[in-house]
């Protein structure tokens, strides 16, 4: 013999009863989930987003993963699954639909909520340094003619565009034109070194390297600015 059960609030006949209530009435008074502490910063200059303390290239997948991690489940839900549908609206505004499914007292229950958010527009540490002419290295481009130097500059710019995808500071801060050639201020010493190694192969030459002491780090280590001189038309 089976007994038909009814919702104590709305009277609907249902086999899915949670604490005497049907799933619809239960959800009116109980939140299945909330979104807490969701705040993503986006650099207005390089476009990277700060997630879990690190600056990463912004993507929908990254935002979905971060939003999913900020979904806080209510008490008593088992085998929960979270689904996030993301819809960019404009600029740094997004609309999303968050769906959570799970079991409460062995009853399958689902809640769907809209969630809109804006990315916080900031300047990342690397871009702030670059704007203030921060530089760890200098690359000097030298060649027999002005046209050749300009051609070297085009190649070097392309190399730094690729390098900046791995290191935001690996960028040209300032370009100084001179009679002898072109000097480039570079934000990252490591990035400058990697680009110089590629330039050496392209122009079949060895860079002339010099260092200048610019200060002392907190730990007492000496800080140097490195200058690389690349000359086109000079064989190894």
What are its keywords?
rod-shaped; 2 domains; alpha+beta; 236 residues; 24% helix; five-stranded mixed sheet
Give a description of the structure.
This protein has 236 residues and is an alpha+beta fold. It folds into two domains: 92 residues; 105 residues, no CATH class. It contains five helices and 16 strands. The strands form five sheets. It has a five-stranded mixed sheet with strand order 13-14-12-16-15. Strands 6-5-4-11 form a four-stranded mixed sheet, with no helix packed on it. The protein is rod-shaped, with a radius of gyration of 29 Å.
Task: Indicate how many domains the architecture comprises.
Answer: 2
Structural class: alpha+beta
Number of DSSP E strands: 16
Q: Which overall shape is indicated by the principal axes computed on the Cα atoms? A: rod-shaped
Main sheet strand line-up = 13-14-12-16-15
How many strands, which pairing sense, and closed or not: the largest β-sheet? Answer: 5 strands, mixed
**Counting H and I runs of at least 4 residues, what is the number of helices?**
5
CA-to-CA gap between the ends? 95 Å
Mean pLDDT: 88
- Report the order of strands and helices: EEHEEEEHEEEEEHEHEEHEE
Please state the oligomeric state of the protein chains shown: single chain
Note the beta-strand portion.
Answer: 35-45%
Low-confidence stretches: none
Binned, the helix content reads 10-25%
């Amino acid at each position: 013999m089976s007994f038909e059960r009814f919702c104590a609030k709305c009277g609907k006949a249902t086999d899915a009863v949670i604490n005497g209530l049907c799933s619809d009435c239960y959800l009116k008074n109980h939140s299945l989930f909330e979104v807490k502490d969701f705040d993503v910063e986006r650099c207005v200059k390089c476009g990277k987003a700060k997630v879990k303390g690190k600056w990463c290239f912004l993507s929908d997948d990254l935002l979905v993963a971060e939003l999913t991690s900020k979904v806080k489940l209510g008490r008593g839900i088992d085998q929960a699954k979270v689904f996030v549908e993301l819809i960019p609206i404009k600029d740094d505004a997004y609309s999303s639909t968050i769906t959570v499914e799970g079991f409460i007292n062995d009853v399958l229950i689902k809640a769907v909520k809209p969630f809109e958010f804006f990315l916080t527009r900031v300047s990342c540490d690397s871009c702030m340094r670059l704007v203030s002419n921060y530089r760890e290295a200098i690359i000097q481009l030298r060649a027999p003619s002005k046209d050749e130097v300009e051609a070297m500059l085009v190649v070097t710019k392309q190399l730094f565009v690729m390098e900046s995808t791995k290191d935001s500071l690996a960028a040209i801060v300032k370009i100084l034109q001179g009679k002898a050639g072109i000097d480039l201020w570079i934000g990252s010493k490591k990035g400058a070194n990697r680009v110089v190694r590629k330039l050496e192969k392209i122009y079949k030459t060895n860079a002339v390297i010099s260092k200048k002491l610019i200060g002392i780090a907190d730990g007492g280590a000496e800080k140097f600015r490195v200058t690389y001189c690349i000359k086109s038309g000079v064989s190894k």
